[in-house]
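Appendix B, record 7
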Amino acid sequence: MSDTILDEATLYAGTAVGLVAFLAGYLLTGVVFVLRAAVAGEPLVTDIVVRTGWRFYASHGVPILVGGARIGTDGVVPVVVPATVLVLAGGMLLHRRGRGDVEPSDAAVTGAAVTTGYLFGAVACRLLLVTVLTSPLPAAPGLVETVLYAGLAFPIVFGGLGGYLGARID
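Structure tokens (predicted):
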């Protein structure tokens, strides 16, 4: 399978890079959330990990319902965070695999390989948020939407875009 652009080594590397991209996006979303709360003079809540998770999933289009009200993304910046992280991850994966000289379509497939790790991170984090951290809180990201939007659509589109741009820039 080494003659194809999406070989086993690329999938393994994509898993690692995708998982790191998920964690980096979550962390950066938390930083944006804390900075916005500090600038607005709001007290920092004790369940900041959970509220960051809600905003992180909401930034992927995953609906979060709390008592009938939908938790939003608080503007454009949180949506840009996971998209930017995934574009950078897709480009990094392309260059890590030494495939800067491939066709842009093959580079996009390589960049989209971050989906394997990002999907794992999205589902694992969602399960952690629901089963461990939000037991007293009546809110959770939908599992189906988590898989479709956060786990598949975002990393395929933006990771692929990163791979494509990485091939075009070289």
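Remarks on this record: The mean pLDDT is 84. The longest strand covers residues 64-66.
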